[in-house]
Each structure stands twice: as C-alpha cells, then as structure tokens.
Amino acid sequence: MAEISIPKLAPQATTTADATPGAPFIEVENVSLYYGASKALKNISVKLEEKLVTAFIGPSGCGKSTLLRCLNRMNDLIDSVRIEGAIRIGGHDIYARDVDVIELRKRVGMVFQKSNPFPKSIYENVAYGLRLHGVKNKADLDARIEESLQQSALWEEVKDRLHSSALGLSGGQQQRLCIARAIAIKPEIILMDEPASALDPIATARIEDLILDLKKEFTIVIVTHNMQQAARISDRTAFFYMGELVEFAATSKIFTNPAQKRTEDYVSGRFG
Amino acid sequence: MNSAATTTPAPTATRHFRAEKFDFWSFFFTGLTGLATLFILGILATILLNILVNGWSAISWHFVSTIPKKDFFDANTTGVLPMIVGTAFRVIVMTIFVIPIGVITAIYLTEYAANTSIITRIIRAAVNNLAGVPSIVFGLFGLGFFINFVGKNMDYLLHNTTAVWGQPALIWASLTLAVMTLPVVIVATEESLKAIPPGLREASLALGATKLETILKIVLPQALPGIMTGGILAVSRAAGEVAPILFTGVAYYMASLPSHLSDQFMDLGNHIFVLATQSPNIEQTRPILYATVLVLLLLTFALNIVAILIRARVRKKLRALG
Questions:
Q1: How confident is the model at residue B11 (pLDDT cuts 50, 70, 90)?
Q2: Is A76 exposed, middle or buried (0-12, 13-18, 19+ CB in 10 A)?
Q3: Domain range for residue B147?
Q4: Do A128 and B207 touch (CB under 8 A)?
C-alpha cells in the first residue's frame, strides 16, 4: 500500500527521457472516471508530447482503454459515465461546455481493437469521413483517398479493387483500412486501442512499421497488451494498474529500469 | 478387443462405453417431437390441398377479371376483381403508413431512448400490449377515432359538414390495419437494429459523424432487410384480417372499383364471409367460395413474393456494395 503514496507521475521522468522532448500536447489533469458508483480511473495526471508514440500498458481492467476513450470523448456514449478533472489538448479543455465534439473527434482519430470497416467498398470506407467533413469533389476525394491508402501502406494491395467490398480484405488489411480511414480526415492525434491484438505476427509487424511511419506526422497513443510491441514502437510508456497510473516514463526506462516494483513485476511478466 | 480384455485387468472399464439397453425415453421424445411436427404439416397440407383441389376448377380468367353486376352468388355472373383490387389497395396504403411510423419508433427505442428509463419501458409494454389486442377491438377503435373523430372533423373543416371523410373509407381501414400491425414492424426493426455491430456506430462517431448521420448512412442501410421482413410479416397479417375493416371501410357490394381514398371497397376476406353465410343457394355458391379463398391465398402469396424479391435485391446490393 505504501507504493500508492508515491507520485503517480514523476515530472522528472519526462525530463530524463532519451527521445527529443516536446511541449506537452495532451494534458490529463487529475482525471477520475466513474461507471455508476464504481471508480474506473483514480486521479490520473499525465502529459503526453506531440509527435511521439505513447503506449498505455497494464493488465485487463486497469483503465488504460477507458482513459484512451476519454481523449476523444467516446465515453460520452455511455450513460452512466461521470468524469472529474480536466483534459486539455493543445491547451484547450476538451470537456469544456462549448467544445464541439464533432470537431474534437475530427482532430482526434481512433482505431479500434476489432477492425470495423463499414460494409461498403474500400473507396467508400475512406470517403465516408471525408464526405462528412465537406470533401465533395470527385477529384479531391480520389486524391485524398489515394494519399491515405498510400500512407497506411495499403495502396499497392487494393488499388485495383477500390470498389469491391472492404469485408473481402484480410484482417490485417482491414485494420490498415481503418487506419487509412482515420488519417484521411487529417487528425492531429490517433488513438489506437489494441490495434493488432487480433492479427497474426506478420500483419502485426506491418501495423507496427506503419505506426513508426505515422509518428512523423501524428501524435499516437496506443493501448497494448503486448509488452514487446510497446517496447518496439513507443517513446513513452504509461503503466496502469487498478485504475491508477503507476508509472509514466520513457519507454526504455520503463523496460530496463522502472522506478516502481509493480512496473518491474509487470513488464518482466511476473503478474498480469 | 477380446485379447485386450483378457490381458488388461479391468474389463469393466471398456464395457462402460457401450450402450447396454434400449433408451426408451430418448426414443419416446424423438418420436413425440417428430409426431407433433407431422401433425402440423398434416393440417397445413389438408387445408391447402382442399382449397387448391376444390378452388382450382372454379377459378378462371373471367372470374378474377369481372366486376359482378347483379348476383354474385351465381357462378355465371360473379367475379372477384373489386375484391382483389380492394384488398391489395388497403394493404398497400397500410404499408405506406406503418413502415415509416414503425421504423421511426424503433429507431427512437434502440438508438435514442435510454434502455432503462421508465418511459422506454412504458413504450415497450404498450407496443407488446398492442400486439395482444383482439382485432375486432382495433375495428371499433378505427370507427371511434378515425371515422367519428378525425373524419368528422375533417368534413367540418373542409367540406362544410358534408360526409366525405366522416364515413367508412379505404383510408380509415388502412390506418386501422396500420395501427394493428405497428408492433410487428417495430419489433422486427428493433431486432435488426440491435443486430448491427456497435463497432460500426463507434467507427462512424469516431470519424466525427453526428448521431443522425450515423443512423442515416451506416445503421439504416444495414437494417433495411430486417425492416423489410417486418413489412412482409405486417402484410401477411393484414391481408387476411377482416375484423378491423368491418366498421371502417368494407362494403357488402359496390358496382365500381375504389378509386379514391375516401371510397368504400369490397374485400376478399369479407366476401368469403358473405358467400359463406348469406347465399340463398349453398350448393351453387360453394365452388365460388372455394375459388375466392384460393384467390385470397394467392394474393397474399403474391404480395409476399414481391416483398421477398425486393428484399433479396437489397441484400444483394448490400453485399456487392456499389
């Protein structure tokens, strides 16, 4: 129990980071979240930097996905959810009363655990978000769709069958299509909720390469159960346990020299 | 096997897997369920064959294309064209009303209303109870509400109290049937909406779509086949119903086809009742009666086939995805 009294986020952890430090882009300040009466997140504070990959790790039910879904307000969809504290993106409180959730979700894209392409053609899947946000012209649509499919490393595989059903793609291709769909509307942040957990190792490797590539342009927050994956692709890692943020630091530090006993036990596979 | 039994010390263990006696209860229940199924099939076959055999000989092009001018109990002068037109007309008008209202209600219940709220529970209970109301009660409701209240007031406002709408008419019969079949459409639509993976709604919302955009562009197209199933069930139920239209629009005899929503109409189901109970010469009327029943069955069948074909096309389009 003594561990709980240790500060959940050591600010110095960020300064000792080996990657180029940036200004905080996503600031989570004292956030608590309740599902009805049960408290799923306990006073979380964390600052994420721009154009880095931050991994959220921890055992099932630790709150990592819940926090991820706070960042684009997907938790709004659940009636019983109540949130305390503040989350700021680029300095703006995203839970302020005058925030346009539509605009927020346009700027904070999301890729889900289970690939969920619309039962439409590959082309229409990517066009959907673009049309929502006012891209109507056929030439513009074509260009943006090709660009995002290129960026998600799917273009070569699908360029000859853009108008056939997205459901005919393999699991890994479907997930890359979901990424293409998310980046087509040019968000600033991409949230990924265990994007590779249902994929085979080869498809997983392709998604990981893609994430490293997307990092140049986007800020990425990824929830993963796969420790090696977090180590391979992320710059910062946050370890959650039972709704608390136990430790947040540079990924190399979390995996080689964690400050917390629980973090060390978890990343070395002794529990969780 | 035998050598194994002699060498191994525990022969009882191998015997354990052999069924030693005839399993009476298993046999009994297999037989019972099979018989019950056969019984139902037998009843269905008896009804259909009886109608088909007796009705087929009396059916002719003349029979289905004639408007009876004098005695419709007489095989030579009778015809069922007005009844076919009346039944088809009322079913189609009913469909036009019941589908949008039912679908919109189902969308509210599944997509908007909080599942646990007291209002949602009351609406659900009301829908379920509506399905249990006897059809003759719907007929009386139609008379009281649509004709005496809505129709009379329309006449008062539009026609200077001349009775145009305030009397039995095709529109009121159709609306009464629409109220009666509403639960069927609501339940079928709700089921098809619930079957759509929540992940698709989340994906749409996460791309910055509003709830309305998500429903219109993602949810409803997917639910269309299920909605059409609801429509097909409603049509099947309504086509043969007589009680709800008894006070609200059906006529014993009309010399011409219905051409306006405020017209009364003749109806196949009602006509079957008339032929069976009002004929002065039962022996002479019996073949016409069989033929009329057959026509009603075929008409219901045809309406269903059309709806099923449209649904198949929608499904195919959803799969091919243009």
A1: low
A2: middle
A3: 61-320
A4: yes
Res. A13: pLDDT tops 60: no
Same domain for B44 and B167? no
Domain shared by B229 and B259, yes or no: yes
Tell whether B50 is within 8 A of chain A (Cβ): no
Q: What residue type is B243 in one-letter code?
A: A
Domain count, chain B: 2
Interface confidence (ipTM) of the complex:
0.87
Same domain, yes or no: B65 and B49: no
**Per-residue pLDDT tens digits for B174-211:** 999 999 999 999 999 999 999 999 999 999 999 999 99
Chain B residues in contact with A117 by the CB 8 A cut-off are: 203
> Per residue in A34-45, pLDDT tens?
998 899 999 999
What is the C-alpha to C-alpha distance for residues B43 and B29, in angstroms, rounded to an integer?
Answer: 21
The pLDDT assigned to B273 comes to 94
Does the residue B14 lie in any domain?
Answer: no
Beta carbons within 10 angstroms of residue A60's beta carbon: 8
CA–CA distance, A151 with A171 (Å, rounded to integer): 18
pTM of the model: 0.82
At which of B7, B28, B56 does a domain end?
A: B56
**In the prediction, which pLDDT does B159 show?**
81
pLDDT at B201: 95
Q: Which amino acid is at A21?
A: P
Which tokens go with B137? 């009660």
Annotated domain spans of chain A? 2-114+188-267
Q: For residues A185 and A103, is the Cβ–Cβ distance under 8 A?
A: no
Give me the DSSP letters along A218-242.
-EEEEE-S-HHHHHHH-SEEEEEET
Q: Are A185 and B207 inside 8 Å of each other by CB?
A: yes
Same domain, B50 and B135: no
| Class of domain A2-114+188-267 (CATH, top level) | alpha beta
User: Which residue of chain B has the CA closest to A165?
Assistant: B321
| Percent of chain B with pLDDT strictly greater than 70 | 93
Q: Find the closest chain A residue to B217 by CA distance.
A: A128
Please check whether residue B5 lies inside any domain of the structure.
no
